[in-house]
Amino acid sequence: VQLVESGGGLVQPGGSLRLSCAASGFTFSRYAMNWHRQAPGKEREFIATISSLGNTRYADSVKDRFAISRENAKNTVALQMNSLKPEDTAVYSCSVDLTGRHYWGQGTQVTVSS
Question: pLDDT value at position 89?
């Protein structure tokens, strides 16, 4: 199993970024995919999940600002982040739970600062 995130970077408050996670090593279309983030000195925080059927759920802190989507033909899951705030600064990681074992990508840094 391999999960590789991309798309992070430095953005000003109010700006947007689109993260992508490329998955391989498992039947992507059958599994829910997740995004989490971890800010310095803080615990990892759930951000969003999308089921194999495309149903989504978000943390209250990002609801109405972030959108998770998946493209099964390309084995990718994306996180569109709008109206970014300094408190969104963190390392963002995608993950998948395969029959009880959780796999994580290496993460991509998102920094929101003027």
Answer: 97
